[in-house]
Amino acid sequence: MWEQSYSVKVSDMTAEEIWNVWTNVNEWYTWQDDIEFAQLTSEFKVGEVFKFKPKGAPTFTLEITEAVKNTMFTDLTKLPLAKMYDKHEIIRHADGLELKSTISICGPLAFLWRQIIATNIVNSLPVQTENLINKVRNVRK
Predict the structure, then answer these.
(1) Which of 125, 114, 119 lies closest to 88, judged by CA?
(2) Residue-range domains of the chain with CATH
(3) Which of 28, 49, 110, 128 sits in a 20 to 30 Å window from 138, CA-based?
(4) How much of the chain, in percent, has pLDDT values that exceed 90?
(5) Are 86 and 75 contacting, i.e. CB atoms less than 8 angstroms apart?
(6) Contact (CB, 8 A) for 47 and 40
(7) Residue 72: what pLDDT?
(8) What is the model's pTM?
(9) Burial level of 94, CB count in 10 A (0-12/13-18/19+)?
(10) SS3 letters for the chain?
(11) Residue 15 near residue 72 (C-beta atoms within 8 A)
């Protein structure tokens, strides 16, 4: 299995504010500038699936495999002979919150999918995380 993470600390927002932006899947396009849309037609909970369309790529179906309110969620993308997990965590520290995203990929063709998409996703995590932080701040206004 291949895995890489990115994290940043913030001190001016709550876990609830972050969670509300994360779980509003249909609005992801407003802060993730590399996607055309994300569409969840049901409740944000384990076992539910949503459509996800990156710019210049086909539409994928992602499954929510873990969800702990105000703490973390993981989504799964099933690829031919590989599975890619995207874990999003809110880690509480005395001086604020750490926002951590971890991309992991496993399966017989994990090496190929890592080169095709996973590395690019990891490289975009700093911008995506900064966009999330800005969205949380803007929603508050």
Answers:
(1) 125
(2) 2-140 (3.30.530.20)
(3) 49
(4) 97
(5) yes
(6) no
(7) 99
(8) 0.94
(9) exposed
(10) CEEEEEEEEECCCCHHHHHHHHHCHHHHHHCCCCEEEEECCCCCCCCCEEEEEECCCCCEEEEEEEEECCCEEEEEEEECCEEEEEEEEEEEECCEEEEEEEEEEECCCHHHHHHHHHHHHHHHHHHHHHHHHHHHHHHHC
(11) no
Q: Is residue 140 within 8 Å of 17, Cβ to Cβ?
A: yes
Structure tokens at 46: 């384990």
What's the full length of the chain, in residues?
141
Q: Angle, nearest 10°, between helix axes 119-140 and 15-23?
A: 120
What is the distance between the alpha carbons of residues 82 and 113, in angstroms, rounded to a whole number? 7
Which pLDDT score, from 0 to 100, does residue 140 have? 76
**Which tokens hold the place of 59?**
């539409």
